[in-house]
Amino acid sequence: MYLDPEATKGAPSRDVLLVSAIITISLSVTIVLCGICQWCQRKLGKRYKNSLETVGTPDSSRGRSEKKAIKLPSGGKVGNAAAVPGQTQHEETDHKTEPRSSVTDLVNSLTSEMLMLSPGSEDDEGHDSSSRENLGRIQFSVGYNFQESTLTVKILKAQELPAKDFSGTSDPFVKIYLLPDKKHKLETKVKRKNLNPHWNETFLFEGFPYEKVVQRVLYLQVLDYDRFSRNDPIGEVSIPLNKVDLTQMQTFWKDLKPCSDGSGSRGELLLSLCYNPSANSIVVNIIKARNLKAMDIGGTSDPYVKVWLMYKDKRVEKKKTVVMKRCLNPVFNESFIFDIPTEKLRETTIIITVMDKDKLSRNDVIGKIYLSWKSGPGEVKHWKDMISHPRQAVAQWHQLKA
Fold it and tell me: Which chain regions cross the lipid bilayer (predicted)?
């Protein structure tokens, strides 16, 4: 058939139409595929997010009150204790260890926890560093009797206190002050070898006008009793009485904070940690100390360092450095190897104690450091750096604590 060139001029050719159709179909398929990918990403992201969410509820309990009055006569002097009959039997808090299915699960759990608690994470924001010292907590009650002008303080119990003795326990008791008065203090009984003590003791401050009570600060200090040396501070709590409704007995649970040391700094210790997962070992290198507290009359000390390996608050192994005579800035450079299987890392604590050697009396403690994944912020950072850098010696300065 003959087509007039003039009649077909300007009409698209068959090849052009075919190419246009192919391009249109390709664009349509691309748009559909993109929509499907975005939908899949949203579904998968939502499912992954949900899998990371966990819910926990804190455990709590209430103590029973045993009455035992200690009176503070008017005039601010502390009198002798007068006992009032009461119950003394208590049930101790049970400790349960977290179950583990395998070493792999434990390593994964440690890794996730370290990431969540790493410096700068959201969990660190808005939290006081002292609240993560894991010094335990104390329960007490406060109230005021207006008719008798008597302030009543009840020391009920404490939980999860740290082990201050090398036997893996403590002998805790509580001192009670009404600051700013520091001369007169009241004390509870000592609970031997107990990290969850029940006191249930009542103290009466009699003849105390209300207008003076609200000007005082209730100060509680928990200490570890030591028969042959100075008692070791465990933690403290202070609460201004003008912020408490004293018209009825109010019961509080308060986390213990590190005790303020009025004697000044105890010095610092530089040490390194090296974790070898294949050998199941940790190498502790005691490098040097600086500005140690002078413990001797001559204004110096004879320092050495003891290193304890603790597992579940029980001592496993002890090692120590040589004694450096009359030196407040000693250099040790001594390394110690401890065998620690991976599955025991979560409940392992390394206690570093700087001691002053004394020939004629018991050696004095200059300061301590507790290294674990649940110690203070500086100690936790060092522990996490050690695990995240296996087979590498990670060094860090630590402030010695009482």
Answer: 16-40
Q: List residues bridging with 370 in a β-sheet.
A: 351
Answer yes or no: are the C-beta atoms of 177 and 185 closer than 8 Å.
yes
DSSP 25: H
Which CATH number among 1.10.10.10, 1.10.630.10, 3.30.360.10, 2.60.40.150 corresponds to the domain 137-255?
Answer: 2.60.40.150
Closest by CA to 127, choosing from 117, 135, 137, 136, is 117
Amino acid residing at 47 = R
The yes-or-no answer to whether 137-255 and 267-400 have a common fold is yes
Burial class (CB in 10 A: 0-12, 13-18, 19+), 231: middle
Would the pLDDT of 110 be above 50?
no
What's the DSSP call for residue 91?
Answer: P
Can you give the C-alpha Rg of the chain in angstroms? 32
- What local confidence, expressed as pLDDT, does residue 38 receive? 58
Domain ranges of the chain: 137-255, 267-400
Q: What digits encode the pLDDT tens for the residues 160-197?
A: 999 887 678 899 999 999 888 877 789 999 999 999 99
Q: Contact at 8 Å (CB) between 325 and 298?
A: no
Cα distance between residue 150 and residue 130, in whole Å: 33
On whether the pTM is more than 0.85, the answer is no
pLDDT exceeds 70 at position 46: no
Q: Which CATH class is domain 267-400?
A: mainly beta
Indicate the average pLDDT of the chain.
75
Residue 139 and residue 157 in contact, taking contact as beta carbons nearer than 8 Å: yes
Q: Under a CB-based contact definition with an 8 Å cutoff, are residues 211 and 201 in contact? A: no
Look at the block and give the residue holding tokens 């933690």: 235
The DSSP element (H or E) to which 193 belongs, if any, is none
Higher pLDDT, 291 or 85: 291
- Average the pLDDT over each of 3-12, 18-27, 185-194, 347-356 and give the range with the smallest value: 3-12
Distances (CA, A) of 68 to 38, 81, 187, 192, 395: 70, 8, 12, 19, 51
Determine phi and psi for 192, rounding to 5 degrees: -70, 135
Distance, CA of 303 to CA of 266 (rounded, Å): 12
| Whole-number Å distance between alpha carbons of 355 and 328 | 12
**Better pLDDT: 110 or 246:** 246
